[in-house]
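Feature request, filed as a ticket because there's no other form

It would be nice if the structure record came with a short human-readable summary line next to the tokens. Right now we just get the raw output. Example of a typical job, pasted below so the devs can see what we mean:
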Amino acid sequence: MFHVEQKKTYIEVIDHLLTKEKFKIKETATAGLLKTDPTPTKKDIVKYYKSEKYVSHNSKNEGLFFFFYRLLRAVNFYSKYRLFSTNNSNQNVLDFGSGEGYFLSKLQKKGFKTFGVEPTASTTLPNILPSIFNRQLDGQKFNYITAWHSVEHVHDLQKTVARLHDLLDEKGTLLVAVPNYLSFDAKYYKSFWAAYDAPRHLWHFDKASLKDIFKNNGFRFVKSSPMFLDAYYVSLLSESYKKSTFKIFKSILVGTTSNILGLFTKEYSSNIFVFKKTKTNT
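Raw output as currently delivered:
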């Protein structure tokens, strides 16, 4: 169990992507865990995803930014895939937060059996469900569950983590990726940092809080690794929000600085966390 009562404001931000509304990112009673305030209801939050600018759902758009996004996404796939076993026969994968289904389609081509979860799915891939609590998943067990930048979007964080625990095979692996608000790029861009992404991102984690939340809900932390390319993508998007000139050059400079400093501070722009199941969900 973790405590989410909101306390003092950590930073004030704007929905740069769509509405220009103001939000506060507040500390909670759980150390290192922040929450967006006000938090839109499940019904109201849908409107904040209805934009062609929301890249993970509209990556086929034309333009230099979308070109770089597709390039980074392709390279990023292999940094994720290296965490999988090379023996993929009879391996079931659940991808929580599938977006357009790019990651799942790549896994399918490599022989994995896949399910995806995406509330705003716009893909023709089979086995994409609108909710992780869909009854079609009841009783199923997965060898791998992936959550690439998705747990920060959920309303019921405690309930979602418990559901991930239930769906993971006893010897399975859970892979979770989230942004890190203690990274250099977060501190550099401040309210313009794209990974705050309020109000679509309801939760904001440092490394310790993410590990503690999963460890307190039946998971054993194995290791974490940086997502180096995320520093460049987030920096490019942040520069776009600032309406900077030479935004590509600046984003490369900030992203590289963040990654180099991360080698010493271990505070990277985003991290992948690897978890295994413990015997009981406490």
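Something like this underneath would help us a lot:
Residues 247-265 form the longest helix (19 residues).
The longest strand covers residues 168-179.
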